[in-house]
Amino acid sequence: MKKYTTVIGLEVHAELKTNSKAFCSCSTEFGGEPNTHVCPVCLGMPGALPVLNKQVVEFAIRAGLALNCDIQKFNKFDRKNYFYPDLSKNYQISQFDQPICLGGHIDIEVEGGKKRIGVTRIHMEEDAGKLNHSGATISTSDSSAVDYNRAGVPLIEIVSEPDMRSSEEARAYLEQLKAILEYTDVCDCKMQEGSLRCDANISVMPEGAAEFGTRAEIKNLNSFRALVRAIEYEVERQIDLVESGGHVVQETRTWDDAQGMTLSMRSKEEAHDYRYFPEPDLVPVELDDAWIERVKNELPELPAQRQQRLMTENGLPAYDAGLIVATKAMADYFDAACKNAGDDKAVANWLLGDVSAYLNNEGIEIDAFPIKPENLGEMVALIKGGVLSSKLAKKVFAEMLKADKSPKVLVKELGLEQVSDEGAIAAIVDEVLAENPQSIADFKAGKDRAIGFLVGQVMKKSRGKANPGMVNKLLVEKMQ
């Protein structure tokens, strides 16, 4: 069997966080009753004219600058003509030959190094409606109902260069892109609600070949897991097809998550089949330098910059910093918790340990975490100050999950103050040593486990309140 190179390009659709649609005043709110957020404009009724939402242009500029694109001062809208039930006008207002952003790139981490993935273009367009299928997937359904609430919701389509060579590179690219869109606040990136969706263009070619193979496009992947699984299945399908003497056809396919396979939807249309022509009801968009410069100056700290700050100013390892800045909400929580903690690394350890475990078990994001960041920081400060042991901090943490109380209050209510009085601890140490002469002999014989056993006995007698460092110090001194 030959060796093959995988070639992947992604088209990411990000719905913009505007209150109203791209060309009318209908609400963009998710979850309304079907066909209630509609009007003659977004339904494409005869004589209804679109009016461009200025915020759409603002968000497109912001996203383009964050992705290192060249903003096109002159750009225009076009009609993309095709028939599909979720497109009531039978055309989509989009951008074709003169989009708002060209060029750009995203840097991703792969196998311990950086790789630059090119961004071909970003263009503004309106979303289509949504088909609600009677079956589990479009391929297994007898009928579909159409909800046009999403029709006309503004989005940007971000088209990458075919620079990715594995499912993991594609995942890393999408994760980084998602973070940038969240940080710039142009999209809420709720993939489960469809506000961030991805189409993957996939092909294979013999290793060392000069030309890419024929590509298939996998539509509407709405989770990182689906993206990885769909790419890996499609690569294997195409290689098996080529190896058995067949050939890959250019087509659009859908991902069936239940079966874990891609299924053919339709032959892939080429650009000219859409019969693009300039949108006659909208004037071109002309931007001036002042507008672009203002948006540039208002850009927030982006994920890569924030990761660098957490490494240099907060002293975190690159890996920990990368995990924390992966979502803006987690990074914001970390910064808030560090304000009164006095130990930024300990805050990171709690976030990546107990906090993340709780979030995973409950299936929630950090936004819904019941412990306020200032309370987590205060608990870390109590540990650092010797008031609370690391072991007893687990009890305080568990109580904070149940009640909105500060750790100081809980420590007092539960009687968990750590004992750091040397005299009080020495008395317990003397008692434990008197009860365990064999452990003293083992310690003097060089058996390291003996000291651990004795520390455990002291902690047990003190009900976990004794300062572990002081316990260890006094045991060694007395046995020597």
From TrEMBL:
Keyword Flavoprotein included in the entry's annotation: no
ATP-binding found in the keyword field: yes
Every Asn/Gln amidotransferase domain range: 332-479
The reaction(s) this protein catalyses: L-aspartyl-tRNA(Asn) + L-glutamine + ATP + H2O = L-asparaginyl-tRNA(Asn) + L-glutamate + ADP + phosphate + 2 H(+); L-glutamyl-tRNA(Gln) + L-glutamine + ATP + H2O = L-glutaminyl-tRNA(Gln) + L-glutamate + ADP + phosphate + H(+)
Biological process per Gene Ontology, one example term: translation
Keywords: ATP-binding, Ligase, Nucleotide-binding, Protein biosynthesis, Transferase
One protein family per Pfam: GatB_N
The family this protein is said to belong to: Belongs to the GatB/GatE family. GatB subfamily.
Coiled coil: none
Superkingdom of the organism of origin: Bacteria
Enzyme Commission number(s) of this protein: 6.3.5.-
Entries under PROSITE patterns matching the protein: GATB (PS01234)
High-level lineage: Bacteria, Bacillati, Bacillota, Negativicutes, Acidaminococcales
Role summary: Allows the formation of correctly charged Asn-tRNA(Asn) or Gln-tRNA(Gln) through the transamidation of misacylated Asp-tRNA(Asn) or Glu-tRNA(Gln) in organisms which lack either or both of asparaginyl-tRNA or glutaminyl-tRNA synthetases. The reaction takes place in the presence of glutamine and ATP through an activated phospho-Asp-tRNA(Asn) or phospho-Glu-tRNA(Gln).
Summary of subunit composition and partner proteins: Heterotrimer of A, B and C subunits.
Signal peptide (from-to): none
Name recorded for this polypeptide: Aspartyl/glutamyl-tRNA(Asn/Gln) amidotransferase subunit B
